[in-house]
């Protein structure tokens, strides 16, 4: 049995704060261990600088040096692989390359990005560290075509770049929706990109006829702003708050379609979850997002909320179209976006490294 060291510098998989990063880290750990491996979270040291603070970066580097030395000294000898999730310029892996170099452990990365444009400016040092960590990886697994662009351009030596499609942590599909209920949106309520998506939702709803209802799953520090945006629509919008897994699954199951514009989403786990129950999705045609949606024509960003409203109206007017589109999306999830596919992809790429290390 292979023992795998897992590390996520941006956010621990054990963090109590829900987010897509946390869920994806947990899913990746589950996919890796599904082949019988033991996966250990070897450090919860958070290396993250949101604002480009040189002082913070210096303190984090010092903490990382201490933590790396601890791991070099104490990591058991039976670890055969190190996996780092989401190394990038705001959250570089300052542990894995040092520990793996000292202990002779093969080092791979999941969902890393290269940002040469950040090698100047307030994140220059962290961007260089993230770039160097990418160079140290024998294999980098990427999730979207957009990520591949810079990874391929800056590929180091004979490094392997492997497409690991985003996936749900399940081996089968949940019960399908009949696509007859309210529309559903789901997203954290926080400033920035999430609030921008909610702003587009509010603008889109203003273009729809009056016989619609929308449920919204999510909560967060920007909830008051989201509620203010949607207040003009009264009780046609129902706020569900933050839901646990079962309650969110029930919301998907009773919905007629899923609506989330997807402003700057890396890809969006909610799209996979919605399509798994057979919901048609209305979203904008954006990098990352298009990688996890059923191939089709989606409204462009430039066409704005009116185009999203037209897409919604087409689906609302035609139950057969909703069900047919949702069924195709559901079949695609079964084929490409469940844990068995992810497990096969990961170990097919990594096993040669383990054989070479023995």
TrEMBL record:
Pfam families: Glycos_transf_1. It comes from Ruegeria sediminis. CDD domains: GT4_PimA-like. InterPro entries: Glyco_trans_1, Glycosyltransferase_grp1. Residues 208-331 form the Glycosyl transferase family domain. This is Glycosyltransferase family 4 protein.
